[in-house]
From TrEMBL:
One GO CC annotation: extracellular region
Keyword Signal: yes
Name by which UniProt lists this protein: VWFD domain-containing protein
Lineage of source species: Eukaryota, Metazoa, Chordata, Craniata, Vertebrata
Keyword flag Secreted: yes
Location of the VWFD domain: 52-122
Pfam family, one: VWD
Organism, scientific name: Oryzias melastigma
PANTHER family for this protein: CROSSVEINLESS 2 (PTHR46698), VWFD DOMAIN-CONTAINING PROTEIN (PTHR46698:SF7)
Cellular location(s): Secreted
Keywords for this protein: Secreted, Signal
InterPro entries on file: Kielin_Chordin-BMP_Reg, TILa_dom, VWF_type-D
Length: 122
């Protein structure tokens, strides 16, 4: 392994090891409760057990990750998805701002949404 590289080792992803100046330092590690240990593209790691989708349609129809659909016609900024709690995964947040008609260049829509996906290291 190269200096600065971090790898997950063990059949159960039980060790997280970092290589620094030719020395490997390991600590206990485990996958999250909705993850399983597997090898993908030659790299061992924790992968989600499943995936889900959320969406916005039209002027106020929202479907959440659990498949429920809500109608909300108000104009405001909403958080659609974000990482909750502590995680080794990159933090992210997706917001949508419903803009009243005529405030965007394309005013064909009554209430278009402006999506703002952001990521950060912590």
């Amino acid at each position: 392994y190269q200096s600065g590289e971090t790898v997950i080792l063990g059949e159960d992803c039980g060790r997280r090891c970092s290589c620094t100046a030719g020395s490997m330092t390991c600590s206990p590690y485990s996958c999250g409760r909705k993850e399983s240990c597997s090898v993908e593209d030659g790299e061992r790691g924790c992968r989600p057990n499943g995936y889900a989708t959320c969406w916005i349609r039209g002027a106020g129809s929202y479907q959440t990750f659990d498949g429920l659909t809500y109608q909300y016609a108000g104009a405001c900024k909403l958080t659609l998805a974000k990482l909750m709690g502590s995680s080794d995964h990159p933090h992210f947040k997706v917001t949508s701002e419903k803009v009243p008609k005529g405030q965007l260049m394309d005013s064909r829509f009554d209430c278009p949404s402006v999506l703002d996906p952001t990521t950060s290291a912590s």
